[in-house]
From TrEMBL:
It comes from Candidatus Mycolicibacterium alkanivorans. The lineage of its organism: Bacteria, Bacillati, Actinomycetota, Actinomycetes, Mycobacteriales. Belongs to the amino acid-polyamine-organocation (APC) superfamily. Basic amino acid/polyamine antiporter (APA) (TC 2.A.3.2) family. Probable amino-acid or metabolite transport protein. Its main location: membrane. PANTHER family: AMINO ACID TRANSPORTER-RELATED, ARGININE_ORNITHINE ANTIPORTER-RELATED. The chain crosses the membrane at residues 20-40, 52-74, 86-106, 136-154, 161-186, 217-235, 247-270, 290-317, 346-366, 372-396, 408-426, 432-450, 462-482. It is found in: Cell membrane. It holds the Pfam family AA_permease_2. This is Arginine-ornithine antiporter. Coiled coil: none annotated. It is a multi-pass membrane protein. InterPro entries: AA/rel_permease1 (IPR002293), Amino_acid_antiprt (IPR004754), APC_superfamily (IPR050367), Arg/Orn_antiprt_ArcD (IPR022461). It comes from the Bacteria. Keywords: Amino-acid transport, Cell membrane, Membrane, Transmembrane, Transmembrane helix, Transport.
């Protein structure tokens, strides 16, 4: 077969219909899901206020640098579309770009399964037949909701984005209500009772050293910040490219402020050991303590709305992260085709079909929510790493920098973000990295399909080496899964 020459131009432009508000809503909507509602007890089980403060400073700086990376790349490389995918491909080639797109896509739809399970588990407060989120009535209802969102998105990205703006506003209301009530009920004596966690025990176990507490709480923060890249993924649909960077930073700062307020105020409402023992969503338990039984229902409704908003945001992101690579011979062409409403229909069908299959599997799997969250988190970390590395590469080469234009700031920002991203990959744990390698290895079928479809070279020599490393890691991962040493769900 005659090999076709790859074109350097980008994909056909999508309709540029998303303004700053819609882009911010995508960032906030994808970041605020379930994590903030469970944050009080999860953090209380990991760290006392002092180590918590240190950990949030480190996390805040690391994630802010990552937000600045997406802002800088959006401004310096406006021709690169697809966010984490586009930056990985531009900096490190087609196969690395593919792994970023596939990892992000797989992470996104697995996270949506987790959201659906928790959504109906929360509805179990009102309807006992949904209790746990994985009963037959819950899975049937979750499937119906999934396909409602699917067909709404098929009607057009703009329609779904508008709904996401409304839902995002609605889900912030209960969080702000909790913060206002927590400010009134805050007791400084409770907050400072054991500031460094030297005496507090959780389930009979001490919290450990300050550094151990810092590390433990930082592991919890990974899940709550996923979605920071949402606007960058939608760069091609933005009315103004500069709004992509603005939306990323503004959305991140808004969510960070909410997380900090919820987390620190909760330590002043209840003793840490009791706080750690609250059932999820722990924010509901705190509201019940402050205002009575109606607080549980109020926060549960807020969580339901929040999860619905996160589901819509992530269905949008799932489809978009397949669409652009498909138009650049990195994913099969079929996933780049849009219907009459401008929605990537095939990408949506594949994504939601995968969600449906795993939803059914949760009827038979144990600990499915936690397992899916951890696996989804580990899959998304490498795309973050490639984006930070690309900024370092641009600044080091001086690419896009004119004569006399300083690069030190961008080198520092990119370097800090890269170090933080490497730490996150390490913190994700070997178990989930190996499981992720299995997913990457199997998913390479789509990359091979796309390259053969266009008559293009499948792997360059360096990419063969990378693929071989993925294959070896996948072999170890598969062995661990078969022997039971690695549990997928």
């Amino acid at each position: 077969m005659t090999e076709l020459k790859e074109t350097s131009g980008g994909p056909p432009a999508a309709q540029a219909s998303l303004g700053l508000a819609a882009l911010i809503a995508i960032v906030v909507g994808s970041m605020i899901g379930s994590g903030i509602f469970a944050l009080p007890s999860q953090m209380a089980g990991s760290a006392a206020p002092g180590p918590l403060l240190i950990g949030w400073v480190i996390t805040g700086v690391g994630m802010l640098m990552l937000a600045f990376v997406f802002q800088t790349l959006a401004e310096r490389k406006p021709e690169v579309d697809g966010g984490v995918y586009g930056y990985a491909r531009a900096g490190f080639g087609n196969f690395i770009g593919y792994t970023a797109a596939f990892g992000y896509w797989a992470s996104a739809w697995m996270g949506n399964v987790a959201y659906l399970v928790l959504l109906f588990s929360t509805l179990g407060y009102f309807f006992p037949q949904f209790e746990g989120g994985t009963t037959l009535p819950a899975i049937i209802s979750a499937s119906i909701l999934l396909w409602i969102v699917h067909f709404m998105t098929l009607r057009g990205v703009q329609t779904a984005a508008f709904v996401n703006v409304i839902v995002t506003i609605a889900k912030i209301v209960p969080i702000l209500t909790f913060i206002a009530i927590a400010i009134v009920g805050f007791k400084a004596g409770v907050f400072t009772a054991d500031f460094w966690g030297q005496h507090t025990q959780i389930d009979g176990n001490p919290l450990g050293s300050t550094m151990n507490q810092v590390k433990n709480m930082m592991l919890v923060t990974v899940w709550v910040f996923i979605g920071i890249e949402g606007a960058a993924v939608y760069s091609q649909r933005a009315k103004k490219r500069k709004d992509v960077g603005r939306a990323t930073v503004l959305g991140f700062l808004a969510v960070l402020a909410l997380l900090l307020a919820v987390n620190f105020l909760s330590y002043g409402l209840m003793e840490q050991a009791k706080l750690a023992g609250l059932a999820d969503p722990s924010m509901a338990g705190l509201m019940e303590q402050q205002v009575g039984s109606w607080g549980v229902g109020f926060i549960s409704i807020g969580l339901i709305v929040s999860l619905l908003g996160a589901l819509i945001a992530w269905v949008l992101l799932c489809a978009e992260i397949l669409r652009i690579p498909a138009q650049e011979a990195v994913m099969p062409t079929v996933f780049g085709r849009e219907n009459a409403h401008g929605s990537p229909a095939a990408a949506l069908w594949l994504t939601n079909g995968c969600i449906q299959v795993v939803l059914i599997l949760t009827l038979f799997a144990s600990s499915s929510y936690l397992g899916l969250v951890l696996l989804a988190t580990s899959l998304i970390l490498l795309p973050y790493l490639w984006s930070a590395a690309y900024q370092v590469l641009l600044a080091a080469r001086g690419e896009t920098y004119g004569d006399g234009q300083g690069r030190s700031r961008d080198l520092v920002i990119g370097g800090v973000a890269l170090i933080y991203a490497i730490w996150l990959v390490y913190a994700g744990g070997l178990e989930y990295l190996l499981t992720g390698a299995v997913a990457y290895f199997v998913g390479t079928i789509l990359f091979v399909w796309a390259r053969r479809e266009k008559g293009l070279q499948i792997f360059t020599k360096p990419e063969w080496i990378i693929f071989a490393l993925v294959a070896v890691a996948a072999a170890f991962g598969l062995f661990g899964i078969v022997t039971g040493d690695i549990k997928v769900f």
